[in-house]
Amino acid sequence: MCEVRGTPLSVDEVFAAVQDRAAGGTAVFVGTVRDHDHAREVSGLSYSAHPSVERELRRVMEKVAADFPVRAIAAAHRVGDLEIGDLAVVVAASCPHRAEAFAACRRLIDDLKAEVPIWKQQAFADGEDEWVGAC
């Protein structure tokens, strides 16, 4: 599963995508929209993405799968307007052992945030907004 979409994300959907009978460990990371950033109240945010986003996400996923004994890997990221509490990103990795699953999942979210062309515009309660780099 490798998706960037404008509809709500599902932890169950991503978890189901990485189920594998040979996996002894599955790690899932869920990123949600929080109500603050750097001591400022956030009222909502919007994600936008470059047209190459799914190709780049797949490239990141393939690198993680090559570096860890991944049985299955999945990532879904939301674009568009999100409210506080909405799921922004869900990633998961299943591996033969838990330590590998944790490491693969961590690497997946870290590399996604650093390398996949998705940008966030945060709206603050005071009416100001800011763009945040790749996320």
CATH T-level fold name: Aldehyde Oxidoreductase, domain 3
Which consecutive residue ranges, at least 5 long each, have pLDDT under 50? none
Mean pLDDT: 96
Number of helices: 3
Distance between the termini: 19 Å
Helix/strand structural class: alpha+beta
Going by CATH, the architecture would be Alpha-Beta Complex
Our count of domains comes out at: 1
Q: What form results from the Cα inertia axes?
A: elongated
Helix content: 25-40%
Strand percentage lies at: 35-45%
The CATH superfamily label reads Molybdopterin biosynthesis MoaE subunit
Classified by CATH, the class is Alpha Beta
Tally of strands: 9
Order of helices and strands: EHEEEHEEEHEE
Q: Gyration radius, to the nearest Å?
A: 15 Å
Descriptive notes:
With 135 residues, the chain is α+β, with helices and mostly antiparallel strands. The chain has helices at 11-17, 53-67, 98-115, and strands at residues 2-5, 25-32, 36-37, 40-49, 72-78, 80-82, 87-95, 118-124, 129-134. Strands 3, 4, 6, 8 and 9 form a five-stranded antiparallel sheet that branches. It has a four-stranded mixed sheet with strand order 1-5-7-2, with helices on both faces. The protein is elongated. The two termini are 19 Å apart.
